[in-house]
Amino acid sequence: MIDFAQSQRQYCTFRLAQYHCGIDVLAVREILRYQPMTRVPLAPPVVKGLLNLRGQIITAIDARTRLGLPPREGERKPVNIVVAAGDSGEESLASLLVDEIGDVVSVDAASCEPPPETAPPNLREVLVAVCKREQGLLLLFDAARLIRISASATA
Amino acid sequence: MSELNDLVKEFLVESSENLDRLDQEFLQLEQDPGNRELLASIFRTIHTVKGTSGFFGFERLQRVAHAGENLLAKLRDGVLELDDARSDALLRTVDAIRAILAEIERTGSEGSQEYAELIAELEALTAQPGAVVAVNRPATAILQPTPEAKPATSAISAQPRTQAQTQTVALTEQSLRVDVRVLDRLMNLVGELVLTRNQILQHLGHSQGALAAIGKRLDGITSQLQEEVMKTRMQPIEAVWGKLPRVVRDLARQLGKQVRLEMEGKETELDRSIIESIRDPLTHMVRNAIDHGIETPEQRRAAGKPAEGCLLLRAYHEGGKVTLEVRDDGRGIDPAKVRAKAVEKGLISRAQAERMSDKEAIELIFAPGFSTAEQVTNVSGRGVGMDVVRNNIEKIGGNVDIASVIGQGTTITIKIPLTLAIIPALIVACGGDRFAIPQVNLVELVRIEKDKAAAAIEDVYGAPVYRLRGRLLPIIDLAKELQIPAQERQALNIVVLQADEHQFGLIVDEVLDTGEIVVKPLDKQLKSLSVYAGATIMGDGSVALILDVYGLGTRAHAVTGDRERQKAAAAASAVEAREPLLLFQSPDDGRMAIPLSQVVRLEEMRPEQIETTGDLEVVQYRGDIIPLVRVFQVLPERRRNPRNPEAGVPSDILPVVIHSHQQRQVGLVVGRILDTVEESLKLQRPASRPGIKGCLVINGKVTEILDVEAVVRAVVPDFYKG
């Protein structure tokens, strides 16, 4: 059972620009379609706004901005992935705005490699591994780090 | 077995709560020794502990409680009098019970302490009617209980068991322990339910029939549910303060000092989780104040102060935070002593000490490993003190401030945020977004029509100012400050705000509404944005940011330090008398108020009831003919282009305020009646036109106070004569 968990993990996949990405499915609380948000003036640009999740106020973080990708174009609204980052007992929720939500896939540890050294440093701090699949590469991210507004993201 | 454990746990929790109450009741009893009701209540609590502990087989606990109960029974029945020795012994009984309970909680068993001495003393005190037993009586002398006391006690202990059990059951039915997180979730869900209800009501509109009736019921139930759930989450600060009188009493006795404890703002409500986390720091500060701050009666008399020291605890809400003060009138903190001590302890160098201001020096008491007590007592002075207090307070996002005057006393001020509190707020719009401003910061609202707006704001080297009744008010434009595009403004809306002792005007696009909002914390990552105090969920389910007036003022450099003066001013203004006022609408959505003392009755009249005699409008009213005064026609219009003066008055039903002088009555035709409020009648703005006494901000709206006599006299000149 433990071996299985180590060798194979399930990832919630999503699309960001031309990339296929995934985060550990256990970190995902729910998926919400786009909702109007309240912007937070003076906040770092990655903070797209505040959402009301059944009475709880959560911060929406634009994954594109977070990863230094160009802003979204066209009519399509982003999707919210509500992510729980448990640091020291207190679970904090945040929403990750992505272009499109994909399937939950099982990833074999054997098919993964650490991110290439040539990837930009701000990406490498959140990118855990790259999974080689037949359909193309799947970038596996650390959800907790992704929703952390780091100093580099603020700058 | 696990079921029993749960029961035991419940017993422990319940008992410790009861014991806390006991402490208070004992102290009340010392003031009022003959109070049978208090005695009976104390008796019941101890009796319950005894009964339940017997049920669980905690024999030691049962014996201690039993001995206490016996004494209490005699006191309750008036056979014995409560004196110092008995009161002391009973308090120690409570302590013993508490200690055993703590032991059970820790180890699951009662421990080895027998408390034979205490039990013997209690028995002796029970056995000797009227006689005052010396507290310091050698324990060995009463270790052997008198033979006649023994059978009596065991005879009683057998019988009340079943009774005690039923009592416990009743208690658990009255209260239930609920995890705070469950309440949090419940609270959030109720909030959502309210929003859903609002949407349903909107859809139903003014429709009639079964669905509308259901909607109404849903409306009522939801409101009630919301109210009840809100209540579950909040606790008055009394929950923490309740323990302190005992602490103060014991400590003062122990140190040979006389201390009077005063409490202000007991009812100030705090989030339950915060209540828990301030308990220890607060107790520590109180102990410190008595140990270090307040002098002995001799020292105090020598200094020309009353022998009894005063320890004042204050709590109040301020700017979305709760402020707690611990103030003593003791010797104060000597910065020179603190410096010397800090150097001696190696915390700072001599050179550092010399460079330090007095204020900084006093702050040294928060440094780890610092203690100024000349003598290490078992009370304080072990060097784990104020630094722990500060750490604990900062952990929950608060801050600690200290101010001290040598010879006059020390005030420690703690400001703690409310993770969840309901505050009244003004909702404004700016750049298409809504923002909430805590009502406590609100002074008044100024609206300047568009044509005058450009001239109203003047410039002092790039700093905009507004002349508010001859005083220059610094102006901050919210849109500019938040770097968001402002919307087309119909008029210049200035919200006059108070942050500490500074006032400034905040320009917003629109002033929308007032209401109670639930303060919700922002994501930890956004905490660094000092301009926001949190966020709240609006009626339509969207999120609005709550502005931190102090943070905003600081950011715009309209506010600078020094908080002490502002506090004194705030305290002074809080004690004004309040008067009930009747609020009604005036034309163009304005608001007016009449002191309720000038209102006899409220009536509704139809226009066809009005008759005229000469140029006077009259109505028949309770067999009398009374003149009518149309308030809005009497008042001179202050706008340049007068709109319909009767706009605020419904056309089919006229709200009429009946006002009387001696036997005469007059009817004032006013606008739609809105509410009655209690407000201090200290006018914040002088009259702008005849017939108006002045203006006040009531519920965040500028309200004109009608000069009833002037208005009546304008129509019925001799109404007040004779």
Which helices and strands, and how do they pair?
The complex is a heterodimer of chains A (155) and B (722).
Chain A: H1 2-7, E1 8-16, E2 19-24, E3 28-32, E4 47-53, E5 56-62, H2 63-66, E6 79-87, E7 90-98, E8 100-108, E9 112-113, H3 121-124, E10 127-133, E11 136-141, H4 143-146, H5 151-154
Parallel strand pairs in A: 2-11, 5-7
Antiparallel strand pairs in A: 1-2, 1-8, 3-6, 4-5, 6-7, 9-10, 10-11
Chain B: H1 2-31, H2 36-56, H3 59-76, H4 84-107, H5 116-127, H6 139-143, H7 149-158, H8 161-174, H9 180-204, H10 210-233, E1 234-236, H11 238-241, H12 244-255, E2 259-264, E3 269-271, H13 272-293, H14 297-302, E4 309-318, E5 321-328, H15 335-344, H16 350-355, H17 358-363, H18 386-395, E6 399-405, E7 409-417, E8 421-430, E9 433-438, E10 442-449, H19 450-456, E11 457-460, E12 463-468, E13 471-477, H20 478-481, E14 491-499, E15 502-508, E16 510-519, E17 532-537, E18 543-547, H21 549-555, H22 564-573, E19 578-586, E20 590-595, E21 601-605, E22 611-613, E23 616-621, E24 624-630, H23 631-634, E25 654-661, E26 664-669, E27 673-680, E28 685-686, E29 692-698, E30 701-706, H24 708-715
Parallel strand pairs in B: 2-4, 9-18, 13-15, 20-30, 24-26
Antiparallel strand pairs in B: 1-3, 4-5, 5-7, 6-7, 8-9, 8-16, 10-14, 11-12, 12-13, 14-15, 17-18, 19-20, 19-27, 21-25, 22-23, 23-24, 25-26, 28-29, 29-30
Give a concise summary.
Chain A has 155 residues and is mainly beta.
Features:
heterodimer; A: 155 residues; mainly beta; OB fold (Dihydrolipoamide Acetyltransferase, E2P); six-stranded mixed sheet; five-stranded mixed sheet; 5 helices; 14% helix; disordered N terminus; disordered C terminus; B: 722 residues; alpha+beta; Four Helix Bundle (Hemerythrin (Met), subunit A); Helix Hairpins; Heat Shock Protein 90; 5 domains; 30 strands; 41% helix; 27% strand
General description of the model:
The complex is a heterodimer of chains A (155) and B (722). Chain A contains five helices and eleven strands. Chain A has 155 residues and is mostly beta strands. Chain A has a single domain (8-148), classed as OB fold (Dihydrolipoamide Acetyltransferase, E2P) (Beta Barrel). In chain A, a hairpin with a 2-residue loop joins strand 1 (8-16) and strand 2. With 722 residues, chain B is α+β, with helices and mostly antiparallel strands. Chain B has five domains: 6-174, Four Helix Bundle (Hemerythrin (Met), subunit A), CATH 1.20.120; 180-236, Helix Hairpins; 238-417, Heat Shock Protein 90; 422-574, CheA-289, Domain 4 (OB fold (Dihydrolipoamide Acetyltransferase, E2P), Beta Barrel); 578-715, CheA-289, Domain 4 (OB fold (Dihydrolipoamide Acetyltransferase, E2P), Beta Barrel). Chains A and B meet through strand 4 and strand 5 of A and helix 9, strand 17 and strand 18 of B.
